[in-house]
């Protein structure tokens, strides 16, 4: 989705249409449409925002919030599809402008076999392409211990020092930001 204000759309409709056509001809996008009014634009956003909710209806969803170079944005989706084959569906969507990718692998139920196809591959692939395993949604509880794929030990210690300075009692978002080893008392204050 490309979002713009209506005033810009009014003045630039021909340029947006040419951009969309060129993007389709170049294979960058498979299909596209330009909203004709605010109501249609709102409907497009409702569909986009409903992707995550609709995904969970399939069953299990393995979610990854990655930041990778824009030119590699969809490569991991294709590689992951090859890895999981017909055992899962791979869905990738995100932010072309900043390289954030919501990578979702969907299956009818959670499976250690599927997880083994995903991890640590997704983290290693991202690190190998100079990306980050935590884009706009942060590390969270499940990925805090995986930060070493994206950050050096020195960077993690610097982040831990800042966290301790700003939140000495660890009451702000506890356990969700950094690995516990970086926040432990023996690491220094």
How would you describe this protein?
- The protein is an alpha+beta fold and 189 residues long.
- Helices cover 44% and strands 12% of the residues.
- It has helices spanning 6-25, 38-49, 51-55, 75-84, 112-118, 121-128, 140-143, 153-166, 180-183; strands at residues 60-67, 89-95, 100-107.
- The mean pLDDT is 85.
In short:
The protein has 189 residues and is of the alpha+beta class. Helix content is 44%, strand content 12%.
Features:
3 domains, three-stranded antiparallel beta sheet, globular, alpha+beta, 189 residues, single chain, 44% helix, Alpha-Beta Plaits
Extended strand count: 3
Biggest β-sheet: strands ordered side by side in the sheet: 1-3-2
Per CATH, what is the topology of the largest domain? Alpha-Beta Plaits
CATH class of the largest domain: Alpha Beta
Q: Distance N terminus to C terminus? A: 45 Å
The largest pleated sheet is described as:
3 strands, antiparallel
Specify the CATH architecture of the largest domain: 2-Layer Sandwich
> Rounded to an integer, what's the Rg over CA atoms?
20 Å
Strand content: 5-15%
GO molecular function: flavin adenine dinucleotide binding; oxidoreductase activity
Signal peptide: 1-18
InterPro entries: FAD-bd_oxidored_4_C, FAD-linked_Oxase-like_C, FAD-oxidored/transferase_4, Vanillyl_alc_oxidase_C-sub2
Domain FAD-binding oxidoreductase/transferase type 4 C-terminal: 15-177
